[in-house]
UniProtKB/TrEMBL annotation:
Annotated protein name in UniProt: Leucine-rich repeat-containing protein 34
Species assigned in the record: Laodelphax striatellus
The entry's keywords: Repeat
InterPro entries in UniProt: Leu-rich_rpt, LRR-containing_regulator, LRR_dom_sf
Domain of life the protein comes from: Eukaryota
Length: 422
C-alpha cells in the first residue's frame, strides 16, 4: 500500500463543465488502487494542497478514517475556503467532537451539502447539527442516515428545521439506534408530521428503515397533506404494508406536488397495489419504486393498467423487480406497454423477452436502469464504473436524474437544474 502524495491528489480531480473541480478520494477506490485510506494525518496535506484551488466546489472523503481529529482540521480549513459547497464525509469514524468543530466555525461555512451518514455521532452530535442548521443559512442538504440518533436529538433537529431552516433535502434514514438506546417511533412521527405541516422548503425527505408501520403512516400523511414543496419521498425498507398504502393513496389523490415515491421493501401486496393504482391517475408522480414487495400478478396488472397514457403524465422511472410476477398475461401487458412506449424500456427495471423457438414470455432484470436508483442501500454493481458513467452521461439530459456519480441531491446541482421537472 502506498501513502497519499500531492501528485496522487492532483490525479484524483474530476473536471466539471463550468471549469470547477471535484476532489474524489473514495476510501474503497483508494484501496483498490493500492493506496491507504485517508487518515487524520493526511487531512492536513489535502487541505494545504487545496488552498490554491479556488475552483474546487466538491470534496468527497467517504469511507476513510479521518475521525474527530481529521474533521477538526477540515473544519478549520473550510473556515477560510469559501468555494467548497459539497462535502461528503460518510463512514469516517467521526463522533460528536468532530461535529462540534464544524459548529464552532458555522458562521464562516458556505457549504450547501453535508453528508455524515454512517458516522456514529450520537445524541450530542445530533444536537450540534441542530445548532448548525439554525446558524448556517447556506446549508440545503444534510444526511444523517445511520448516525445513532435518539428521540432527544431528533426533537432538537426537527425543532431547528421548524424554527429556521433553508434545508431542501433531509435524510434521517436508519435512525433506529442499537437495542437499549432510547427511540420512540410514534413520538418521532407525530413530531415530524407537525413540523412538515408548517414547512415550506423541504423538497426531498428520506426515511428509510425507521420501522414505520401502517398506523404511523396515517400520522405522517396528516402532515404531508399540508406540504406544497415536497417533490421526493423515500420510505423504502419499512413496514407500511397494504394499510399504509391506503393512507398514502388518499394523500396522493389530493394532487400533492410529489414527483418521486420510493416504497421498495415495504411488504406491500395486491391490496396495497390496488390502492396505489387508483391514486396514480390523480398524482404527478414520475418516479415510482415498488421493487421487492409482495405484489402478485393481479396487483401488478392493476398498476400497469393505471399508468397514465398521456405523454406528459407518464412515469419516467419504474421499478417493479422483486415482486411475484409469473403469469403470462401480466408479461403480455407489460410487453404491450413497453412496445407502445407508454413505459420506457430504458427506464424500467424489467424487460420481457422470448427465447428463439419459444412461444412463452420471460422476464429479466434490466440492469442498466440501476444507475438511476438511489444508492443509500447497495445497488447491483455488475457494470464497471466506466460503463456506468458512460450510460449516465448519455442519459443525463434525456431522462430525469435521481442519482449521480456524486452523492448529493441533484436539486442543488446547477447543471442539472430541478430534477423532477419535465
Amino acid at each position: 500500500m502506498y501513502n497519499i502524495t500531492e501528485l496522487f491528489i492532483e490525479c484524483m480531480y474530476e473536471r466539471n463543465v463550468d471549469r470547477t473541480i471535484n476532489l474524489i478520494l473514495h476510501g474503497h477506490k483508494l484501496e483498490r488502487n493500492n493506496r491507504n485510506r485517508i487518515l487524520s494525518t493526511d487531512v492536513e496535506l489535502i487541505c494545504n494542497h487545496l488552498r490554491n484551488k479556488s475552483n474546487i466546489v466538491a470534496l468527497q472523503l467517504c469511507y476513510n478514517s479521518i475521525g474527530d481529529e481529521g474533521a477538526t482540521k477540515l473544519a478549520e480549513f473550510l473556515k477560510d475556503c469559501r468555494s467548497i459547497k459539497y462535502l461528503d464525509l460518510r463512514m469516517n469514524g467521526i463522533g460528536a467532537e468532530g461535529v462540534k468543530s464544524f459548529l464552532d466555525v458555522a458562521e464562516y461555512l458556505t457549504i450547501k451539502s453535508l453528508n455524515l451518514a454512517g458516522n456514529k455521532i450520537g445524541k450530542q452530535g445530533g444536537i450540534y447539527i441542530s445548532e448548525l442548521i439554525k446558524v448556517n443559512e447556506e446549508l440545503q442538504h444534510i444526511d444523517l442516515a445511520e448516525t445513532d440518533q435518539t428521540s432527544t436529538s431528533i426533537a432538537y433537529l426537527l425543532s431547528a428545521i421548524n424554527e429556521k431552516s433553508t434545508l431542501k433535502n433531509f435524510n434521517l434514514s436508519r435512525v433506529v439506534p442499537h437495542p437499549g438506546k432510547e427511540f420512540d417511533v410514534d413520538n418521532f412521527i407525530d413530531l415530524l408530521s407537525r413540523v412538515l405541516s408548517m414547512n415550506s422548503t423541504l423538497c426531498e425527505l428520506h426515511l428509510q428503515k425507521i420501522h414505520l408501520t401502517c398506523h404511523q403512516m396515517d400520522q405522517l400523511c396528516d402532515g404531508l397533506r399540508w406540504m406544497r414543496s415536497l417533490e421526493m419521498l423515500d420510505l423504502s425498507s419499512n413496514l407500511i404494508g397494504d394499510e399504509g398504502s391506503k393512507y398514502l393513496s388518499e394523500y396522493l389523490i389530493k394532487k400533492p406536488p410529489l414527483k418521486a415515491l420510493n416504497l421498495s421493501h415495504n411488504r406491500i401486496a395486491n391490496r396495497g397495489a390496488d390502492s396505489l393504482s387508483r391514486s396514480l391517475l390523480y398524482s404527478d408522480v414520475k418516479y415510482l419504486d415498488l421493487s421487492f414487495n409482495q405484489i402478485k400478478d393481479g396487483g401488478i396488472q392493476f398498476l400497469l393498467f393505471s399508468i397514465p397514457k398521456y405523454e406528459n403524465k407518464r412515469l419516467k422511472l419504474l421499478f417493479l423487480r422483486g415482486n411475484e410476477i409469473k403469469n403470462q398475461e401480466t408479461l403480455a401487458v407489460l410487453q404491450t406497454l413497453i412496445e407502445s412506449k407508454i413505459i420506457n424500456s430504458e427506464t424500467c427495471d424489467l424487460m420481457v423477452y422470448q427465447a428463439p423457438g419459444d412461444q412463452t414470455l420471460s422476464l429479466a432484470h434490466n440492469q442498466t436502469v440501476d444507475i438511476f436508483r438511489e444508492e443509500y442501500y447497495s445497488v447491483s454493481k455488475e457494470y464497471d464504473n466506466f460503463k456506468q458513467r458512460s450510460i449516465r452521461e448519455k442519459n443525463a439530459r434525456k431522462h430525469m436524474h435521481f442519482v449521480s456519480s456524486w452523492p448529493m441531491p441533484l436539486s442543488i446541482i446547477p447543471e442539472f437544474g430541478t430534477p423532477f421537472l419535465d
